[in-house]
Description:
The protein is mainly alpha-helical. Among the domains are: 1-217 and 527-585, Serine Threonine Protein Phosphatase 5, Tetratricopeptide repeat, CATH 1.25.40.890; 291-420, no CATH class. The chain has helices spanning 28-36, 38-56, 62-67, 80-84, 108-133, 147-170, 194-212, 234-251, 256-261, 264-271, 299-303, 313-319, 430-443, 448-459, 474-488, 495-501, 532-537, 566-580; strands at residues 71-72, 173-174, 192-193, 283-287, 310-311, 371-373, 391-393, 423-428, 516-517, 520-521, 543-544, 556-557. Helix 2 (38-56) packs antiparallel against helix 5, helix 7 (194-212) packs antiparallel against helix 8 (234-251) and helix 13 runs antiparallel to helix 15 (474-488). It is globular, with a radius of gyration of 23 Å.
Amino acid sequence: MSRLSSWAALLVVIAMGACDLNVGNPNAPDAKRAFSDPAGLEQLLSGAIRTWAETRENYFILPLNTQANNYTASWNNAAIRFYSSVGADCPIRCGWTNASTAPEAAGGPTVEAAWYGYHTVLSSSTDVLRGIAGGTCFDDDCKTDSTLTTRNKAVAKMLQGMAIAGIAMLYDSGFAVDETTDLSNPRALSFSNRTQMRDFALTKLNESYTLAGVGGWNTGDNWFGLTQGRTYTNVQMQQLIRTMQAELIALWPRNGAENTAADWATVATYAAQGVSSGTPYDWSYYVDINAAECGDFCIKTWGNSIGTERVDTRVAALVTTNHQDPWPVPGGNPCPTISADKRVGDGSWGPSDNFNGYATKAATANAGTDFACSGVAIFPPARGQYHQSNLQHIRYNHLAATGERLPNGSPACPLAAPCDGSGQDPLYTRQMNDLLWAEGLIRSGGDVALAAAKINNSRVGRGGLSALTGVEGTDSLLKALQYEQEIEFMGQGTDPFFNRRRSGYNAAAAGGRPQYTDGLIVNTPRQMPVPAKELDVLLKEIYTFGGPGHPDMVASTGGSARVRSAGEIFNDYLQLQRAFGRLHR
């Protein structure tokens, strides 16, 4: 992120700079040159793409998927144990620790990391748009050909939408700002609520979609990862935009009531133009070897490392017929697994029995593509037997940690990767889009036969299960859809958390399981507050969500420092991530 940016140092709250380029600022000449340098602005653009991917799969937001009982772990890295345990640090689940000085173990960085990551993306993309508005041309002569300039404007608008969407999905409010915002008095800017943020993101994505339809172009080299990052056409980027819009509307609801009220017809319309439409493709970011093993991207690394994280027994009991929820003490759930789903198979995995010390059985002809069974439970029992699990996610095992993935060069390595921790990281897949498309059709009263066909693309195509026809009825179709979403959304950022909080699932405490309300264990917060650092700067009262005594959708209040840019603060989180991401505590 440019240190010269007018967004770079004013308020961490909006990632904006304290420099007025028109009033005696000694850095002003350098700033002007920076905003007129096409090469520098294009680097800013590609850096923003990487920062967005790092934020979506950030180490400090690992707890959300364990709060959704999708993955599970008892380590307290990134406060996973603190936020996902039941009756340990809090009577049931803890709310967010919204304090600028709270340590990792008490959950402080969890609330802040995505905020600063997404605002860094917003800052960088806005700088690019300001440069273009100021006359910067990325082509030889924009009077005769402005293809690259239009491309970069479209991608910058897309990144604005992606950043604002991330804030709208996670936080209760944010700042609806862009290159047209008057920043002369940033402390006077008011918060926009999450509905306004969602709608603002959709507007930015629509603007990007329109621009991407002007002319034909390909994305730049190394925009989507060093050395082996893929390039995409403008048509593919339009497909991506539509998938992201469908995701935003579908996964934005915080509970079942909001889910019912969502604009499902528009979800279906957007998804019908998404990455599984036309010529289908998966949109990926290449994780190079220097960023591997939770150097920059963590959710798939942790989730696919057999000695680090496991599949929660809630999901294990769903996808098998012989695993129980909660984990049965003391013997655990058995291997081999029993499932008609080819993604689960018999739980066998790897070139030989116990090849990496986790009591797995050598892969048979019935080995699953997404899951494996481990004969050992890896978490300390004293931290809660409910954390234990014998099922492991292996779909993205090429991104797992050393000693917890297939051997380097294994022919069974996912996505033809070398299994050294590097490789393509699929961030939006055809299956994800198909399931959003199907849900939009079902919930809006659309073509249920088409919805069934979209579900079948993963249900039959990957799972080998019996085909749906559409005559099964709404409840049965939704049940089949939700089963697919549990599998196909796993490892995709914090989408599993977003998906559970809107599910409407309710169950009383029974059989060793805690009470569930609207998809989540009671007291689990459903959204994040504005981080305390921001509120301190703005001299506003700090508040939080969730935990004992506080409804998960009602803010509870609690109680000035040097102002740093969002980029500087997010950099701190990346350094901590690299230090802590490989450790179990």
